[in-house]
Design a protein that fits this description.
Rossmann fold, seven-stranded parallel beta sheet, two-stranded parallel ribbon
C-alpha cells in the first residue's frame, strides 16, 4: 500500500527529466498520473512505462502556454479519473542571453511558461476544487490536496544571462505563497521546490559547442560546459550535481501526507549549493 493510493496527480513537462522521474515516483507510490508534455511521443512513453510497471497513467500532450490548454488538461484528467489531488507545475525551458540581448519576445516567453501557465492551470482547477472541497467538508470527508510549483536557484539567487528565466522562477514563488494563503480554506497545501543543477537535457554537459533543443519551432542553446560542471561539482558540499530522481524526491516530499501541515514554503534542492 502506497502513501498516494487513490490520489490523482497531474505532472506537466513529464516526458523527460525531473518531470518524468516525478511522474514515475508518484505512480510507484500509488498515484494515478496524468502525464503532460509538449511532445506527445515522450508523454506517451512515460505513461506507457508507468503502466508497464503496474501503475495507472494517461498522457495528455499539449503546450501549457496555449491559453486554451489548461482547461483541456483539467477536463481531461477529470473525465478519466474523476478527480485531481496533486498538481506539479514542472513544465519549462531556458532561453538565455545577456540583459542587453534580451528581446521582448524572449522575456515574455519565459514569463508565459514559468508563471502564466501554472496560474492558468490552477485557475482552471479552481471551480472543481472549490465545489468538491465544500462538499467534502460538509460530509466530514475532507482530504488534503497538493500543489507543487517548480522554481530554481536562478529565481531565488539570480543568475547571469538568465534575467527572463530568473524573473519567471522568482514569480513562481510569489504565486506559491499567495495561493497558499488563499487555498488553505480548501485544505490545499501549495509549496515550491527550487532546483539547483540537475542533470537534464537543459543542463547536459558539452565539450565544444552547446547543444540545442527545439521549442515551438525555435532552437534554443542549452547545456553546461565541462568547466562549468567541474566547477559546480567542486563547490558542491555533496561533490556532485543532481540526478532527475533527486529532484523528484524533493517534489515527492510535498505530495505525501507527512507534509499536510506544510504550506507556502520553498525547498531548495541543490545539493547544498
Amino acid at each position: 500500500m502506497g502513501k498516494l493510493n487513490d490520489r490523482i496527480a497531474i505532472v506537466t513537462g513529464a516526458g523527460r527529466g525531473v518531470g518524468e522521474a516525478t511522474a514515475k515516483m508518484l505512480a510507484a507510490d500509488g498515484a494515478r498520473v496524468v502525464v503532460n508534455d509538449l511532445d506527445a511521443e515522450v508523454a506517451d512513453r512515460t505513461a506507457a512505462a508507468i503502466r508497464e510497471a503496474g501503475g495507472e497513467a494517461i498522457a495528455i500532450a499539449g503546450s501549457v502556454t496555449d491559453p486554451e490548454f489548461p482547461g483541456q488538461l483539467i477536463d481531461g484528467a477529470l473525465a478519466v479519473f474523476g478527480g485531481i489531488d496533486i498538481i506539479v507545475n514542472n513544465a519549462g525551458y531556458i532561453w538565455n542571453g545577456a540583459m542587453h540581448n534580451h528581446s521582448d519576445e524572449q522575456f515574455q516567453a519565459m514569463l508565459d511558461v514559468h508563471i502564466t501557465a501554472p496560474f492558468r492551470i490552477l485557475r482552471a482547477w479552481a471551480p472543481w476544487l472549490r465545489k468538491t472541497a465544500r462538499e467534502e467538508a460538509e460530509a466530514g470527508t475532507s482530504r488534503c490536496r497538493k500543489v507543487v510549483n517548480i522554481s530554481s536557484v536562478s529565481g531565488t539567487q539570480g543568475s547571469a544571462t538568465q534575467i527572463a528565466y530568473s524573473a519567471g522562477k522568482a514569480g513562481v514563488i510569489g504565486v506559491t505563497k499567495t495561493l497558499a494563503k488563499e487555498w488553505g480554506r480548501y485544505n490545499v497545501t501549495v509549496n515550491c521546490v527550487a532546483f539547483g543543477p540537475i542533470e537534464t537535457r537543459l543542463t547536459q554537459r558539452y565539450e565544444d559547442e552547446p547543444p540545442t533543443i527545439e521549442v515551438d519551432g525555435r532552437s534554443h542553446k542549452v547545456g553546461l560546459s565541462e568547466a562549468q560542471v567541474d566547477g559546480l561539482e567542486a563547490t558542491s558540499p555533496l561533490g556532485r550535481t543532481g540526478q532527475p530522481r533527486d529532484g523528484a524526491g524533493a517534489v515527492y516530499l510535498f505530495c505525501i501526507p507527512e507534509s499536510d501541515f506544510v504550506t507556502g514554503e520553498v525547498l531548495t534542492c541543490s545539493g547544498g549549493l
